[in-house]
């Protein structure tokens, strides 16, 4: 990126993620060692952060709503004891997340100190057929990677500045989401949904 006029930049992918989960914790499609995630990364100006967060939450609401999820639990996690980034940027980013939640009119809980070391985050959890909560969507600020990769842009005053990086996933683990959905619907899928399901799950 060269100029503040280039921002925001948004990239998205469906990528495979691997985690070494202990064998005793593996659980069907809900907890696996390899899964697909609808990952996206957004690079924006600090002044654009609130708008980008609101856009992500609107997209989450639209996509989850298409699958019939209209109630979910939302957690805003704030700065932990060990973190990177200045007090000012943490305060502004946390306020941007708060404002985006308030703009949506959503109820949320605050997890004090539960954020990642690189930035505050919003986690959205959905319930399965027996009432268990599973993390689905997430949106996170990242002050660490732009610094580690020495990412800069030229601001309107001609100075070099660092962008804020935003991580977001709408469904999170596709396999986990499908596991929740299949049990909720008790396999009563219409023909359109069955064709769509074939794209994600081998038969």
TrEMBL record:
It catalyses: tRNA(Thr) + L-threonine + ATP = L-threonyl-tRNA(Thr) + AMP + diphosphate + H(+). GO terms for biological process: threonyl-tRNA aminoacylation. SUPFAM superfamilies: Class II aaRS and biotin synthetases. Pfam families: tRNA-synt_2b. InterPro entries: aa-tRNA-synt_IIb, aa-tRNA-synth_II, aa-tRNA-synth_II/BPL/LPL, Thr-tRNA-ligase_IIa. It is an enzyme of class 6 (ligase). The keyword Iron does not apply. The keyword Protein biosynthesis applies. Its EC number is 6.1.1.3. GO terms for cellular component: cytoplasm. Keywords: Aminoacyl-tRNA synthetase, ATP-binding, Ligase, Metal-binding, Nucleotide-binding, Protein biosynthesis, Zinc. It comes from the Eukaryota. GO terms for molecular function: ATP binding; metal ion binding; threonine-tRNA ligase activity. PROSITE patterns: AA_TRNA_LIGASE_II. Signal peptide: none annotated. Belongs to the class-II aminoacyl-tRNA synthetase family. This is threonine--tRNA ligase.
